[in-house]
Amino acid sequence: MPTLSRWCMRAALLYLVIGFTLGGALLLAKAGVVDLRVWLWLPAHVDVLIVGWMMQTAMGVAFWILPRRRLVGRGRTELAWASFALLNTGLVVSAGFSWLQFWLPNWGWLHEAFPLGLALQVLALIVFAGYAWARVLPTITLTKSQSHS
Fold first, then answer.
1. Which of 123, 128, 119 has the alpha carbon at shortest distance from 94?
2. Predicted confidence (pLDDT) per residue in 100-127, tens digit
3. For the CA atoms of the chain, what is the radius of gyration?
């Protein structure tokens, strides 16, 4: 398995654990066990599970499994690494500032960081799609005359 795929899978598993932990905290808040301000973490919970776990797993598998061209191998891997960095930076910004909102509720500007994190994540997915597009190969079909020769 390529190095980037391993990093994506490790990060995805980390986000899965974080997402489940946040989800557990939300359930405890629903039961009245912990402070209701924990519900401020709901957007981070969704973001961490959908983008951090699912999308990062998809990116790691796609980097590993998409066809390689003979002369260029996996293509411009620096784009895939940049996408990995952008995605994780966006997740840390969006989820991290959502977490900080709980501890610093008087800092109103913290809620503005969440869209910045989402923008970095969207940019990461666009960069990865641009990288992966070059690795998508056309299907070779044989005509009837070629198949009987």
1. 119
2. 776 776 666 666 778 889 999 999 999 9
3. 20
Domain borders along the chain are 3-138
**Which structure tokens are listed for 149?**
């020769």
Count the Cβ atoms, other than its own, within 10 Å of residue 143. Answer: 7
Compute the distance between CA of residue 122 and CA of residue 40 in angstroms, rounded to an integer.
Answer: 22
**Cβ proximity of 41 and 99 under 8 Å:** yes
User: How do residues 61-78 score in pLDDT, each as one tens digit?
Assistant: 999 998 777 666 788 899
Neighbouring residues of 91: CB distance < 8 A, sequence distance ≥ 6: 15, 47, 48, 51, 52, 117, 121
Which residue, 109, 62, 59, is CA-closest to 85?
A: 59
Query: What is the C-alpha separation between 83 and 52, in angstroms, rounded?
Result: 13
Q: Within a 10 A sphere around the Cβ of 109, how many other Cβ atoms?
A: 7
